[in-house]
UniProtKB/TrEMBL annotation:
This is Phage tail protein. Residues 1-29 are annotated as: Disordered. Transmembrane segments: none annotated. It comes from Microbulbifer okhotskensis. Residues 1-88 form the Tip attachment protein J domain. The lineage of its organism: Bacteria, Pseudomonadati, Pseudomonadota, Gammaproteobacteria, Cellvibrionales. Residues 14-29 have a biased composition (Basic and acidic residues).
Length: 88
């Protein structure tokens, strides 16, 4: 990303690994966005958490029609675990 106060040089943000050790490694993502440092750091942490959760794999669930209001991106609790809705 480009720091809004840093000129034309690209900048880097990192996210420390949590105590959850399901995965290890490094991922680099480049973006043409101009962001403030705090915004970029927050985005890096959120993206890191999403990548960790995606390592859990998929779960397909059929729900009754009263759950029709769910849309992709919603997070639901099912049997004590959190899941993000990818498609409906």
């Amino acid at each position: 990303y480009y720091d809004s106060e840093g000129g034309i040089d690209t900048c880097k943000q990192t996210s420390d690994r949590s105590i959850d050790t399901r995965g290890e490694g490094e991922k680099s993502i480049e973006t043409p966005l101009v962001l403030e440092t705090d915004q970029a750091a927050q985005i890096a942490v959120v993206m890191h958490k999403v990548m960790i959760e995606e390592q859990r794999g998929d779960c397909e669930i059929t729900l009754p029609s009263n759950y029709i209001k769910l849309t992709p991106g919603n997070v639901v609790l099912f049997r004590g675990d959190r899941f993000r809705v990818d498609e409906v």
